[in-house]
Specification:
The complex is a heterodimer of chains A (113) and B (115).
Chain A lengths: L3 E4 L2 E4 L5 E7 L5 E8 L3 E10 L2 E4 L6 E3 L9 E3 L8 E8 L8 E2 L3 E5 L1
Parallel strand pairs in A: 2-11
Antiparallel strand pairs in A: 1-3, 3-8, 4-5, 4-9, 5-6, 7-8, 9-10, 9-11
Chain B lengths: L3 E4 L2 E5 L4 E7 L4 E9 L5 E8 L4 E4 L2 E6 L4 E6 L8 E11 L2 E7 L3 E6 L1
Parallel strand pairs in B: 2-11
Antiparallel strand pairs in B: 1-3, 3-8, 4-5, 4-9, 6-7, 7-8, 9-10, 9-11
Classes of the chains: A mainly beta (113), B mainly beta (115).
Chain lengths: 113, 115
């Protein structure tokens, strides 16, 4: 049972490039979400999904796209990277029922030059 | 909009002391409250989760309490050890009509336990 896995661990992009951050969980969790962590700002919700085919926006969704074609995977796409997207990105998952304990992946550190 | 505040932002104490970390939130319509630990450069490890109907949870030397009506939670660490040094994050899960949304986090308390 690997829990929540994220790839890559580190990534450097140039402004305007696109990329996909991968997130997978093997716990059969319905709920998955993406957060970014910035110094002085804490963790903020980007997008979340309550099941395959269902996604919704969080607090800071601009510049990011998500889709949920399977229960296990929830990729985050940066369409045209900007320096403001330099951050550490965390994926999380939980069952969609009590107690809704959130389990986090190890994170992806992204730098946009 | 839900806001979560953690006090103090940083704390340094000698080994063996008991200590309390504070968390407050503005919207009492929460689903649950979760305390996490984050080590430098690492992900988040869940320590304790308190559901909205509960008053406290305990795990080993950790005890978390919840007073939903006043919008407060505390994390009590007994007999602190150098290995407890980390950043502690408080997060609330807000209940919405269609179910629970994402977590709202505080900015954390950076804890250093001096040997």
């Amino acid at each position: 049972n690997a829990g929540v896995t994220q790839t890559p661990k580190f990534q450097v992009l140039k402004t305007g490039q696109s990329m996909t951050l991968q997130c997978a969980q093997d716990m059969n969790h319905e709920y998955m979400s993406w957060y970014r962590q910035d110094p002085g700002m804490g963790l903020r919700l980007i997008h979340y999904s309550v099941g395959a085919g269902i996604t919704d926006q969080g607090e800071v969704p601009n510049g990011y796209n998500v889709s949920r074609s399977t229960t296990e995977d929830f990729p985050l796409r940066l369409l045209s990277a900007a320096p403001s997207q330099t951050s550490v990105y965390f994926c999380a998952s939980s069952f969609d029922g009590n107690p809704r304990t959130q389990y986090f992946g190890p994170g992806t550190r992204l730098t946009v030059l | 909009k839900q806001e979560v505040t953690q006090i103090p932002a940083a704390l340094s104490v000698p080994e063996g002391e008991n200590l309390v970390l504070n968390c407050s939130f503005t919207d009492s319509a929460i689903y649950n409250l979760q305390w996490f630990r984050q080590d430098p450069g690492k992900g988040l490890t869940s320590l304790l989760l308190i559901q909205s109907s509960q008053r406290e949870q305990t795990s080993g030397r950790l005890n978390a309490s919840l007073d939903k009506s006043s919008g407060r939670s505390t994390l009590y660490i007994a007999a602190s050890q150098p290995g407890d040094s980390a950043t502690y994050l408080c997060a609330v899960l807000l209940y919405s009509g269609g179910g629970a949304d994402g977590l709202t986090f505080g900015k954390g308390t950076h804890l250093i336990i001096q040997p």
